[in-house]
UniProtKB/TrEMBL annotation:
Chain's gene name: mnmE
Residues that coordinate or bind (6S)-5-formyl-5,6,7,8-tetrahydrofolate: R21, E78, K118, K437
GO cellular-component term (any): cytoplasm
Note describing how the cofactor binds: Binds 1 potassium ion per subunit.
Transmembrane segments: none
Gene3D superfamilies assigned: P-loop containing nucleotide triphosphate hydrolases, Probable tRNA modification gtpase trme, domain 1, tRNA modification GTPase MnmE domain 2
Principal subcellular localisation of the protein: cytoplasm
GO molecular function, one term: GTP binding
KW Transit peptide (keyword) present: no
Species the sequence originates in: Hoeflea phototrophica (strain DSM 17068 / NCIMB 14078 / DFL-43)
Protein's name in the database: tRNA modification GTPase MnmE
Residues reported to bind K(+): N225, S244, I246, T249
Amino acid sequence: MRDTIFALSSGNPPAGVAIVRISGSGVRFGLETLVGQIPPARMATFCDIKDKNQLRLDRGLVLFFPAPHSFTGEDVAELHIHGSRASVAAVLMALTDLDGFRLAEPGEFTRQAFENGKLDLTEVEGLSDLIRAETESQRRQALLQADGVLRSLYEGWARRLTHARAMIEAELDFSDEDDIPGSVSDQIWKDMGLLLAEIRSHLECASAAEVVRDGYRIALIGPPNAGKSSLLNYLSKRDVAIVSDIPGTTRDVVEVRLDIAGYLVVLQDTAGLRESSDQIEIEGIRRSLIAAEDADLVLELHEFGVPGRVVPSGVNERIEIVTKVDCLDEPFTADDAAFGISTLTGAGIDKLLEAISERLENLAPSGEMGLPTRARHVDLLQDCVTAIEVAMKSAEAPIEVRSEYLRHAANSMGRITGMVDVEDLLGVVFSEFCVGK
Ligand SMILES: Nc1nc2c(ncn2[C@@H]2O[C@H](COP(=O)(O)OP(=O)(O)OP(=O)(O)O)[C@@H](O)[C@H]2O)c(=O)[nH]1
Ligand SMILES: [K+]
Ligand SMILES: [Mg+2]
C-alpha cells in the first residue's frame, strides 16, 4: 500500500491560519483518529484535533474530499488550524505517529494529481508558475496554462496527427480496391499543412512567453559616473548599489527585480565603460559587455556633452538617456536626445518608464492565448514541426514511412502533455515545487 502523505500547505508560520493537507488511502483512518469522525464530504466541519492518545492539540475546520473528486485524485483532508509554529508542529507530529503516514516530498501532491490523470504536464507547470508568480502578467499567463489552455491546444494537435495516420493506414489497407478516392489523401496533407502553419505561428510567440515568465532584462550601460547606479537605486526605491563621485565605483553586475506595468523586469547595473589598466575593473567591464549583449533592452546613459560609448553590436534594442539634467543651464529638450533624466529631482523618469512599459505591452499578443512558456515545449514543438515537414516532403516515399513520421510528430506532442513516455522528464518538472503542493 502506498504511504499517506501530509504537509503544511500554507505559508510559513506564524500566520492566522495554517492548512495541513493529507492525501492517500489512509486519510479516513487519519480523520477517525485525529478528529474522531469523517466529516461530510466537502463541508467545512468544526472539530477538536487530538493526537492518537486523545490529547487535544488544537481546534479548527476540517474538510474531507473523497477520491476521486479531490486535487490529487486520492482521498484528501485539510486541517485548518491555528497558524502558530507550535500548533503546526504538534499536528504534524501527531500525523507522523500514524502508521503509513509520512511527510510529503516537494511537489508530491501535484505528482499524485498527475499520476491520477487530474492534470497533464503543462497544467502542472502552469500551477508551478502560478505559485511563483510575482507580477500580473506572470499570474495571467500561469493561470491560463494551469487551466489547461496549452493542454487542449496540444491534445487537439495530437488528435489531428493521429487522425491523419488513421486515414493513411486505412488507405493502405484498401489500396487494392478502387473505391478509396485519392482526395482523402489530399485532404490529409492539406490539413497537415494547416497544422504546420499553426504550430509555427505558436512558436513565434515563445520568446514573449519566456520574457513574461523569466523577466525582461534591462542593462544600464555607460561611462563611469554617468549615474547608472543612481538610476538603479531610484527605480528600485532602495539603496542597492554604491553611489559615489569616484568614477569606476561599480565593479560587479548588480541586479534587481522590478515590477513595471505588471511585468517582471530584471534591471542590471554595470561597471562604467572606459579604458582601464586595473585588472578588477577590466573584469567588471567585460561583465558589463556581456550584460549588454544578453539584455532585451539597453539603456545607454551619459551626461550631457559626454559621449555615451556605443554599445557593442548584437544588442537588440537601446534607448539613449542624458543624465543629471538638473545640472544643465538650459532646460533639456527632446532635440538633445530622446530622454533626459535626473535622479536628484525625478525629472524625466516617468516618461522613461512609460517608454519601457510600452515596449513590454507590445511584447505579447493580447487575448487569452496559451503560449509555449518553456524551452521544453519549444524543443518538442520543433521536433514535431520537423517530422511533419519530412512527412509532407516525402511524397515519393512508401506511405508506411510517411505515416511513421507523423507518429513521431504525435509522439513529440504527447511528450509535452505527458501522455507518452515521460518518466525522464518528471524529475525536472516536479523539482520546481515546494513542499505542500
Ligand atoms: N546632480 C546630479 N547628480 C547625480 C545624478 N545622478 C547621479 N549623480 C551623481 O553622480 C555621481 C556618480 O553617480 P553613480 O550613480 O555612482 O554613477 P555610475 O554611473 O554608477 O558610476 P560608476 O559605477 O563609477 O560607473 C554621484 O556623485 C551621484 O550622486 C543626478 O541626476 N543629478
Ligand atoms: K561612480
Ligand atoms: Mg555605478
